[in-house]
Amino acid sequence: MELHDHGLASDLEMMRRQAAERRQVLRWLLAGAATLPLISCGGSSDASDTTAGSNAGTVTIPTAGACTVIPEETGGPYPADGTNTHGGSIVNVLNQSGVMRGDIRASFNGATGVAAGVPLTIELQLLNASGGCASLAGYAVYLWHCDRDGLYSLYSSGVTAQNYLRGVQETDSTGNVSFTTIFPGCYAGRMPHVHLEVYPSLARAASASNRIKTSQFTFPMATLNEAYATSGYTASVRNLAQISYASDNVFSDGTRLQMATVSGNATDGYVATLVIAVNG
Prior knowledge:
Blueprint: H1 8-13, H2 16-31, E1 81-86, E2 89-92, E3 119-128, E4 134-135, E5 140-144, E6 166-170, E7 176-182, E8 194-199, E9 213-217, H3 221-228, H4 234-240, E10 261-265, E11 269-278
Parallel strand pairs: 3-11
Antiparallel strand pairs: 1-2, 3-4, 3-7, 5-6, 5-8, 8-9, 10-11
């Protein structure tokens, strides 16, 4: 199923003037702000951490140390950002109308599928590692991950007509961005993970050539075991038992900067938070 529309640029046209004015005000405010304290980035330093206490709402930044750039990682074979093809056609959601959204559970731009699974809110904050760890306002994050069956929309058999679990959001004045989604499954050979690309602005997020960081993050083992004990994640239980952070081809070199802090539970849903530093 081919999905065509005016794309992200069309979504931005109506709000461009207002956004520009808002960012100008933010520049004035930030210019007069006091010098920020040094900031520590990343989630848990221990891959075996259990779920943390409630962290719903704005991401809280640690207040000691210095932020470190999140590792560059592969975008994998299912980015749908225009950098590869499937079935002989370029796969790209960045040029589709409706991709700019916070709730990524449903497909968009004419597709109608909705991904089922344990509710998950992902809250990220972007910091400028080359600029005193200041918050990065007005940047954009493209986020995607597999569904509870380990399938990627637009690529995997059975969901090629869907584009759910993909979306772009702009960071607010404090560098925060939030996505409403479902807890991703675990497929054979990989620890559960979420992909992301960072762009210097929403307008530039219309083309993958403008991305300044590609990375992935994961979740504590206690959260994985709890989430996968629920209905619909049977295959994930089996696949998770055959892999570990140490043997994963992305996280084997450590998860300190890529381990989300998680609160909540499998009944009410989870909130995963992560502070991400890039060179802005």
